[in-house]
Task: structure prediction
Amino acid sequence: MASEMKRAAWGAQAHKDEIGKLPVAFPRTMGPNAMTYLQEVIDTGMTCDMMGRFEAAFARELGVKHVIATPGCTPALAVLAAAMPWEPGDEIIVSPVTDYGTVQGLITQDYIPVFPDTAPGSINFSAQTIAPCITDRTRAILCVHMTGIINDMDAINALAKQHGLFVYEDVCQAVFGEYKGRVAGTLAQAAGFSFDAEKTMGSDVGGCLATDDSDLAERARFVGQSRGGVMKPHFGRLHTVAGYAYRMPNCTAAICLAQLEIIRPQVAHRDAMIRLLYEKLAEIPGIIPPTIPEYMNLFSCWMAGFNIDAEQFRCDTESFAEQLAQAGIPGAGMGAYYLMPAALTCLQEQSTRKLHPYSTPPASREYRYSGDDCPNATKYLETYIRWSTFCEKYQPEHCELAADIVRQVADKNRR
Ligand SMILES: Cc1ncc(COP(=O)(O)O)c(C=O)c1O
Result:
């Protein structure tokens, strides 16, 4: 019993053999030092600065000057949004296919998210699709490396430079992936990360902001991590800005620190397995895995997916995905809800009724949010099936098994 508990504590159960089944992320593989660091938090009576230790270790590993640890990526990007000197009604260009967490901070700061279309046949936008969306109100471009596919950042940075725009990354789906030998999260001026339980570097929750910009880091700590307070003699704290007080808890930092120690070999393994999986899927008629750009020398993802050629099958995408889930691909489903201009009905309502910040001023023009404005993305997602259970436990036999399941469902539904 005692040894069972110890094994479970180290996440040894994570790799229990399940013959003929695809692995899932849970139970997570835990860094061997997780318990030591957690114990330290307890033994020191909450006086050790585990958050600071994690920030320093993550900054070192990433090769950036500053890491500001938060309870998740949603708060990390909200902190950045609050720390930037943008005004209500300013426009931020955002990848159209993403999670709500990417845009939450923009919405609460009363900035206006603008969604370009994706590049044809891709889940990401591109410099070409971004360019027509730039106006004199545009302040920044927020690039999401969706499903681990890293955006072509050189082209996007070059475009941004022409217009004096700030560029930042949402790295939740590409942790330690690499673009032309440079790690995701260091490809622009700042980046948000998530260490949410199901993700690549899964802790319980957690996230951070990373940047080389010392002024931004200082502002982000002040408005984001602290209560935005300065001390006034004989009075106490004055809240000069509306601070968030979003700090990563020390126990979360203890787990993140332990997970960081095992992440690099895991990502190298994920890279080999996802490439193998997509190679095998590409052999199945009617199945179209994503193109992996040549500039990506390390492919890190936790969400996998592919398109189907709808003409070749009798069933629709939703039914195809349901059959996959039943046949043994846990979590297979449609990804249509990731199309933010269609999913953000709160902004549809706000902009249609011309409520702040869509009123005049501060808005400089009319805004619409709907899938119709992103025809490439809409078309792509109509035939896209995602599964969020790809993980470091995949071995070549699991790639083979996943491809077999997809092949069987495809053959059953073939016209
Ligand atoms: C692209 C992207 N951005 C942001 C988030 C939100 O991250 P968190 O749960 O850490 O707030 C997610 C979560 O799935 C995500 O996939």
Observations:
- The first strand starts at residue 66 and ends at 70.
- The chain is about 40% helix and 15% strand.
- The pocket of pyridoxal-5'-phosphate is lined by residues 72-74, 98-99, 101-102, 144, 170, 172-173, 194, 196, 207 (CB under 6 Å).
- The CA atoms of residues 81 and 342 lie 22 Å apart.
